[in-house]
Write a structure and sequence with these properties.
Layout lengths: L1 H24 L16 H22 L5 E4 L4 E6 L1 H17 L3 H17 L7 H5 L3 E7 L4 E6 L11 E8 L2 E4 L6
Parallel strand pairs: 4-6
Antiparallel strand pairs: 1-5, 2-3, 3-4, 5-6
Helix pairs in contact: 1-2, 1-3, 1-4
Length: 183
């Protein structure tokens, strides 16, 4: 049960920046009727929205500790490929959807459909905020030709140097490495 809730939380987190783009496009600010908030510039509202999304991302990283732990033997890794750039075109597509939605109803409907597809996909948990807090995305191909996604703070280049002792299983194809990079 916790895995399904975490997947839903991670899916929503991965899409919240598109909501931020929509709110900025629609010039939605914090309650302008409140006497202390009515004179604040709009950018303060947008920074607070972003701060909230950033906080939710940090919470999702913390919640990862409650998932099942797994390992990948470095001898079973045949190829490591960076995956950060592979996700950016899809994510930019979410931004264009947010910019083109004419109203909140259309945006929420499309947001819901995208959320359902991402939730049921094998590996689409890309959240650009992970990049800001030091995580990278890598495709790892094992010797038995299985391709998995690993989200880690390590810089991976060669399979022989890749070591994962504290992987958290999001699903059978996506893992988050909670071991910190050794400097």
């Amino acid at each position: 049960m916790i895995v399904h809730l975490f997947k839903l939380f991670l899916t929503l987190n991965s899409l919240l920046l598109s909501l931020l783009v929509f709110l900025i496009k629609e010039d939605v600010v914090l309650n302008p009727l409140h006497p202390y908030l009515s004179n604040l510039p709009a950018v303060i509202s947008y920074l607070l929205y972003f701060g909230f999304i950033f906080l939710l991302t940090l919470i999702s990283v913390h919640l990862t500790n409650f998932l099942d732990t797994d390992t990948i033997d470095k001898l079973s890794i045949s190829v490591i490929e960076p995956a950060n750039d592979a996700f950016l075109p899809s994510y930019l597509g979410y931004f264009f959807v947010a910019l083109s939605a004419p109203n909140i109803e259309v945006f929420l409907y499309v947001f819901g459909i995208i959320c359902i597809f991402i939730y049921h996909s094998r590996i689409s948990y890309f959240n650009p905020i992970f990049l800001l807090i030091g995580f990278n995305f890598y495709y790892i191909k094992t010797n038995n030709n299985t391709k998995i996604l690993v989200i880690t703070q390590k810089q991976l280049k060669e399979p022989k140097n890749a070591e994962f002792e504290n992987l958290k299983r999001i699903n059978n194809y996506t893992f988050m490495d909670m071991g910190r990079q050794v400097l």
